[in-house]
Amino acid sequence: MSMEKDVREIVMKYSDMLYKICIVMLCNEQDVQDAIQDTFCRYLEKRPDFRDEGHEKAWLIRVATNRCRDMLRFRLRHPKISIDELENSLAAPEQKEILRELLELPVRQRTVMYLHYVEGYRIREVAEILHITEGAVKMRLQRGREQMQQLRREAYN
Fold it and tell me: How many angstroms separate the first and last alpha carbons of the chain?
């Protein structure tokens, strides 16, 4: 049996079970998908030799539950912060509206706009920080400005 077919069969066979285990532990769809994907990636990396089907199943469950525990520990150490708390901790009063608008942009534009306009990095420096070309920085800045203008127009209509 080819490796591709073998992996596909493993994924089909155990995905549902792993989903149920992870959703109970994490209660978050995106985190569950990440945990399952990480589990199968680990399977591909290690390519363990199992004694039997029960050993394979137990290994996948152990890897998935360990990944879920790691994610839960990360959540405890890095709690999510609300936009209002973020505004209060990061922005001077005159920057709060800009920060709120930036948070509505896609992450690519948001990051470039923040580094350039708020932190004051030059285009070349932003490109170096993000490991992208200066042309990509300029394009993301342009798109970000256009999207912010669109957001402002929609807010005033």
Answer: 61
